[in-house]
Amino acid sequence: MFLNTLLVVLTDLAARLLGNTVFRQHFHLLLSAVVMFSPALSFWVSQHSIFAKRSHFLYRIFLRSGWGWTCVFVGSFVFLLSFSIRRSLALSIRHLSRLGVAGALWFIFCKLLDQLENATGSCYESLITDAGDTNGQPLLVLREGESKSECLKAGMLWRGYEVSEDVFLLCLCCLLLAEEMAVFGPYLSLGGISDAPLRILFLFCVLLLGLWIFLLFCLLAYFPQFPTQLLGGALGCLSWRGLYQGWYRLGPSWYCPGRPGVGLLKTKTGSAEAEDAQLNHDHYN
């Protein structure tokens, strides 16, 4: 009984925060400020911290498969919420298709960024010189005619025009999580009934959002690469704006999955007008 009460209180508080108009208006600005100013933390954080190692289990387990974790938790929450309300598989698939669209966009951008790095990069061989020559720093010798794959296989360095795919992914996942979970607050306020499994999934999504923000801080503070990380964050924010603030506002159709919550929210009396008013308030203000 106590655990159930605690679950209800925590999920209600989180749903109220994520569904708040002020939070939804300014979350992307907060994320942008994190990307812009967090690299300055590199002057204060300790490079002996466990988070300063790329081999840390948080990076290995979560960051390398960040999109998979996001799809599993957000997809489960969206499907369970939509199917439990309307019992329509087609409607649930339509709402899940937003994840498919975002995943396809992420995959395409990663391929394009990889091609950009290949086209603008060069291969360098690291040669250790005497300490008196370059203060103990390795000397990089250009190797002509090497492709990126051949260069890396030979144990050499590839330097090209990079955009941080990790920061791009984390920003996109954070904004996607905030959008998809924001509908839970209005749903509860309109009298929606939610059982323990739905609340637990929602809470897991909240924890995942917190983890992505924490990992974003760690990457920016412990591994600062300001130009590439700034571009990655900008690309993530632009992807979110193009999808959730642009395309999805066109409304549900054969070419558009629509906004989160469309066709799901309703009052206790089933008023469609109240549903539209609630969605307009939450998504347009």
TrEMBL record:
Gene that this sequence comes from: FITM1
GO molecular function annotation: coenzyme A diphosphatase activity
Membrane topology field: Multi-pass membrane protein
Assigned keywords, A-Z: Endoplasmic reticulum, Membrane, Transmembrane, Transmembrane helix
Family: Belongs to the FIT family. FIT1 subfamily.
Transmembrane residue ranges: 25-45, 66-85, 167-188, 200-223
Predominant location category: endoplasmic reticulum
Annotated compartments: Endoplasmic reticulum membrane
UniProt xrefs under Pfam families: FIT
Source taxon at top rank: Eukaryota
One Gene Ontology cellular component annotation held by this UniProt entry: endoplasmic reticulum membrane
Stated name of the protein: Fat storage-inducing transmembrane protein 1 homolog
UniProt xrefs under PANTHER family: ACYL-COENZYME A DIPHOSPHATASE FITM2 (PTHR23129), FAT STORAGE-INDUCING TRANSMEMBRANE PROTEIN 1 (PTHR23129:SF3)
InterPro entries reported for this sequence: FIT, FIT1, FITM1/2
Keyword Transmembrane helix: yes
GO biological process: lipid droplet formation; phospholipid biosynthetic process
Function: May play a role in the formation of lipid droplets (LDs), which are storage organelles at the center of lipid and energy homeostasis. May directly bind to diacylglycerol (DAGs) and triacylglycerol.
